[in-house]
Design brief:
mainly beta, 106 residues, three-stranded antiparallel β-sheet, six-stranded antiparallel β-sheet, 9 strands
């Protein structure tokens, strides 16, 4: 049984490095190239790659791939800029692919 006083954390599936907190989930209704993904308002212990234009399901965005700071595994991306007004809420938020993270203290 999980310790109820410990924070619920998402970790890198490869090395268990903590990368996000459960309370920072903005939405669970996202799709990445390999399945479901979560949108987080914050992420930690990650490294950002270079910014690039990417045409996603919801249109053109400027994104930066994000990697685990400990092992270098690609985890998802950060939305840097959305060109469409309806997508602006994503700016500054992080997509973590569900199959690349694991739950801790749940």
């Amino acid at each position: 049984m999980a310790d109820v006083s410990a924070p619920r954390i998402y970790s890198c599936h490869n090395c268990r490095n903590h990368v996000a907190r459960h309370e920072d989930i903005f939405s669970k209704n996202f799709q990445a190239s390999h399945g479901r993904a979560f949108l987080f308002s914050h992420a930690m212990n990650i490294v950002e790659g270079p910014k690039e234009n990417r045409n996603l399901i919801t249109g053109l965005h400027v994104v930066a791939d994000i990697f685990c700071k400990n092992c270098g595994m690609a985890l998802g991306w950060k939305y840097e800029k959305a060109y469409e007004e309806s997508q602006k809420y994503k700016e500054g938020k992080f997509i973590l692919e569900k199959f690349k993270i694991m739950k801790e203290n749940f």
